[in-house]
Amino acid sequence: MLQKVLLTVAALLLSTNVAFAERTVVFAHDATWPPMEFVDANKQIVGLAVDYVDAIAKEAGFKVVHKNVAWDGIFAGLAAGKYDAIASSVTITEERKKAMDFTMPYFDVKQALVVPKTTEAKTLEDMKGKTLGAQISTTGHFAIKRTAGVTAKSYDEIGLAMEDLFNGRIDGVVCDDPVAANYALQQEEYAKKLKIAFIVDTPESEYYGIAVKQGNKELVDLINKGIEAVKAKGIDAQLRAKWIGR
Hints:
Layout: H1 2-21, E1 24-29, E2 32-33, E3 37-39, E4 45-46, H2 48-60, E5 63-68, H3 74-79, E6 85-86, H4 94-97, E7 100-102, E8 107-109, E9 111-116, E10 131-135, H5 139-145, E11 151-155, H6 158-166, E12 172-176, H7 177-186, H8 188-191, E13 194-199, E14 206-208, E15 211-213, H9 217-232, H10 235-243
Parallel strand pairs: 1-5, 1-6, 10-11, 10-12
Antiparallel strand pairs: 2-3, 3-4, 6-15, 7-15, 8-14, 9-12, 9-13
Helix pairs in contact: 2-9, 2-10
């Protein structure tokens, strides 16, 4: 009898572990934000955040599906259960924490101003009377709107803002510093004409977190397990070096 009980318990534990290992988590990305998340020439979603998610999934023992979702509806889709998590350069803010839960931070970020090389500016206040662009509802967009005398222009994608800047239709773009570096320093055509003027002075430090539907503590804990392992093994440093060189 005891042997049967032990066999039954063992079978239950095995089935539980198998089910856990086979769990699939769907991650949404707005794949317009290089080098963090973007679509490559093969129409695949790639970038630092994508590699990071794959790494934490491997460490925590779950499978991943990556889904490309436009930024303007990405948070509503999470609330509606269209996917399980968002790994799309989402800065953790007190306002956002009212509507969703976050994992521990996985990436620190600053805001940078990209301008034509002929522009001399040291602060956003130096851009008074100018029009600055940013992707809508991002921390860069919020920073512009806080600056008196500056006209804020919002875009659905950061690439459209950079295109307008390159063609002289706006005077600057504020975005996350890895994205700013990608456009102003690494894309050959843009690098001839654009530069990073400065890092924007923001009220507090910014950190990316993975957003999860409010109340889903089990998933937050699972992803955090992966993040902790990725940090402990130095995988995050390897991914930074691969994608942004720091």
